[in-house]
């Protein structure tokens, strides 16, 4: 087990003009853990993931992934990371196979063609490997994005709405696969999702984000009990509607500053 967290974020801040997208965000994810990052639209989830990947430059703060400073040495960490997001399209004119070949080479995957065949079967995309990615359905694109995210067997996996556009049966299958993958490889996973049953099933720990700041944090069970609710969907709604102990804790934290 690593002596340092797989993901270590300290006082992270991102500002666009007068808009503060992420505000003094601090958290750590231990090796082999699954952290859920939850919040409404505009809460800062995707911005945080983009900064973790080095796609966005933080306004302030520090990010270390696998013990590596992402501002100074991110290329040392990126081969051991990967991500999936419905907001980032793969090249539409390339076939699925061509996309996987391109990203596999980018990540330096050994025995790449064998790995493509393997991950295509696992993600159930083998039937359309030679079809242009732009001609796939939304659900097929989601599965291809997951195949790309797993092509290099990453140690750190960042997932933004990983089961978006999937039918319930396929989404359930993907969650089972991710759970098994994490258990077998001890990969660290950061999951941003609006699917609360998915969060309860996959996550060891959850951060509730509101306006770019931590509203509350705990395991799904701890948050459900703290809010006095039956499930994470009710917890999420309490946060969105300005109710619950999380909001009271946030106000106490603000008053103490």
Strand order of the largest sheet: 6-7-8-3-9-10
CATH homology superfamily name of the domain at 7-87 and 156-218: P-loop containing nucleotide triphosphate hydrolases
The portion of residues assigned to helices is 40-55%
Largest sheet: 6 strands, mixed
Keywords: ATP-binding, Nodulation, Nucleotide-binding, Transport
Pfam families: ABC_tran (PF00005)
InterPro entries: AAA+_ATPase (IPR003593), ABC_transporter-like_ATP-bd (IPR003439), ABC_transporter-like_CS (IPR017871), ABC_transporter_ATP-binding (IPR050763), P-loop_NTPase (IPR027417)
GO molecular function: ATP binding; ATP hydrolysis activity
Describe the structure.
The protein has helices at residues 45-53, 70-77, 96-106, 112-122, 138-150, 168-185, 196-202, 220-227, 232-240, 245-256; strands at 7-16, 19-29, 34-38, 60-65, 68-69, 81-84, 156-160, 188-192, 205-210, 213-218. With 257 residues, the protein is of the alpha/beta class. The chain has a domain at 7-87 and 156-218: 3-Layer(aba) Sandwich (Rossmann fold). Helix 8 crosses helix 9 (232-240). The two termini are 36 Å apart.
């Amino acid at each position: 087990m690593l002596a340092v967290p797989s993901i270590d974020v300290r006082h992270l801040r991102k500002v666009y003009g007068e808009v503060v997208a992420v505000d003094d965000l601090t958290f750590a994810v231990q090796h082999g853990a699954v952290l859920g990052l939850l919040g409404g639209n505009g809460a800062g989830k995707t911005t945080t993931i983009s900064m973790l990947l080095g796609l966005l430059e933080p306004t302030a703060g520090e990010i270390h992934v696998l013990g590596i400073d992402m501002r100074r040495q991110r290329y040392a960490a990126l081969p051991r990371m990967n991500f999936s997001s419905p907001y980032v399209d793969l090249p539409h004119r390339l076939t699925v196979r061509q996309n996987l070949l391109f990203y596999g080479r980018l990540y330096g995957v050994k025995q790449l063609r064998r790995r493509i065949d393997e991950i295509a079967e696992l993600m159930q995309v083998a039937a359309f490997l030679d079809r242009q990615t732009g001609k796939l359905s939304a659900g097929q694109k989601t599965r291809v994005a997951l195949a790309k995210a797993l092509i290099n067997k990453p140690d750190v996996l960042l997932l933004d709405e990983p089961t978006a556009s999937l039918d319930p049966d396929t989404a359930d299958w993907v969650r089972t696969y991710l759970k098994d993958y994490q258990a077998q490889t001890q990969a660290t996973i950061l999951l941003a999702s609006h699917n609360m049953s998915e969060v309860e099933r996959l996550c060891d720990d959850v951060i509730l984000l509101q306006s770019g700041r931590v509203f509350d944090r705990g395991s799904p069970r701890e948050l459900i009990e703290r809010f006095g609710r039956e499930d994470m969907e009710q917890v999420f709604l309490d946060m969105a509607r300005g109710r619950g102990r999380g909001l009271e804790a946030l106000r106490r934290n603000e008053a103490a500053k």
